[in-house]
C-alpha cells in the first residue's frame, strides 16, 4: 500500500514540476493567470519546478533504487507532461488548480 502511494506521489510531483515550469513561460502564464509573469515569478517558478522534479527523482530512487528509479522517473516525467499537455488546451484553469494540490500530495507521500 505504501509503495503504491509513493508511486502516485512521484507522479504527482512530476506533474506539479512540469506545471510550474510551464507556468514560468509567458504564454502559459498569460493563459492561466490572465497576465504576464514578473521576472521574479518566472525565476521562482523555474526553481520550484526543478525542486519538485528533483523530489520526484529522490522518491523514485528511494522506492526502486537508483538504476530503476531513474527509469521510473523518466516515465513519470513523460506521464506528467502528457497529462499537462492534454489539460492545457481544454482545461487550463483546472490544470493550474491541480498543480499545488498535486505538489502537496506528492511532498506528503515523499516524507
Describe this structure in words.
This protein has 111 residues and is mainly α. It has one domain. It has 5 helices and no strands. The mean pLDDT is 91.
Uncertain spans: none
Let me know the number of strands.
0
Shape: elongated
* First-last Cα distance: 15 Å
C-alpha-based Rg, rounded: 14 Å
Binned strand content: under 5%
Q: Report the total helices.
A: 5
Outline:
By secondary structure, this protein is mainly alpha-helical. It is built from five helices and no strands.
Write the layout of secondary structure elements.
Elements: H1 2-23, H2 26-33, H3 39-64, H4 66-90, H5 92-110
Helix pairs in contact: 1-3, 1-4, 1-5, 3-4, 3-5, 4-5
Tags for this entry?
mainly alpha; single chain; 5 helices; 111 residues; 90% helix
